[in-house]
Amino acid sequence: MMRTLLPIGKNRTVHSSALQAAMIAALCLSISACSDEAKPRPAGHAAGMVLIPAGEFLMGSDGPGAPADEQPVRTVYVSAFYIDRCEVTNAEYRRFVMETGHAPPHSDAPQAATYTWTGSDYPPGTADHPVVLVRWHDAAAYAAWAGKRLPTEAEWEKAARSGMTGQKFPYGNRLELKQANYYKSYLRAKELRPVASFEPSALGLYDMAGNVWEWCQDWYSADYYRSGAGVNPQGPPNGDYKVIRGGSWMNDEPFLQCARRGKHSPDQKSPSIGFRCVRSASQQDSRGGSED
Q: What is the model's pLDDT at position 184?
C-alpha cells in the first residue's frame, strides 16, 4: 500500500486544511452510519408542525353511501392549533421509551411479529416507519411527554381537509397511488411505509390518508354529530371506544376519506394504528372555547 507523506515544516507540524477537512468529514460519516436514529428522514420530509388557523369548516359527509355516523354535515368552529407534519416514528417513540421507561411496543400476536420491538429496539431498518402496536393510553402518554396532546376528532378532520370544502380526500375527490399508502389489490404490496414517502397535502401534511390509522382524543359515539358542540367539540364524556382517523395500509380507498370515522378499544394494539400530535396555538380564544 502506498503511503503519502506530507512535508513537515520547521516546527514539525502539518498544515493541511484539506486533509483536516477530509478527516472530519470521514469521522462524521462514520458516526452517522453507526446510529440508525441519526439518519435523516426520507427525501421530501419537513420536520416540525403546521399551523392550522382558527375558523369554521364543514365536518362530516352526507353524500350517497355516507355512513350514518358521519351525518349530519355541520358547521364547526375550531381554534388555531399546530399539528405534526408526520406520524410519530419508531425513532421518536424510542427516545420517549428510553427517557421515561415506558413499555415499548410489543405484541405476541402472530400478525404483529413484523412490527413488535425487541426490548427497547424497534425492528431493524424501521426508524422512519410510523410507530404501531401502541394503545391509546401509550399515544396519550407520548404526547404529554412531548408537550403536546392527541388531536380532537374535529381538529384532525379540519387539518385533513386542507382548507377545501366537501372534498372526499386530503387531495380532492380522487386518490392516486402516489398520494397515499393504501390497499390497491395487485397494484401495490400491503405493507407499512416510512413517513413522508408520499405526496404531502396542500397544507404540507404527510399521510393524513393511509399508512396508519391515527388515534384521536375523543371517545366514539355513533350519533355525536347530532348533539355535539359547534365550537371546539371534544367528543362525548365517555364511551367504549376511541376514535381513529385516516385509514391505513390495510384498507381500500373509502376508508381514507377525510370524514370517515373509525373506532378501536383504547386498550388494544394494532399494526395498522399509530398517531400524530397537536399543540394548541393558545389556551383560549375570543370565542370562549377551550382548546385543551
A: 84
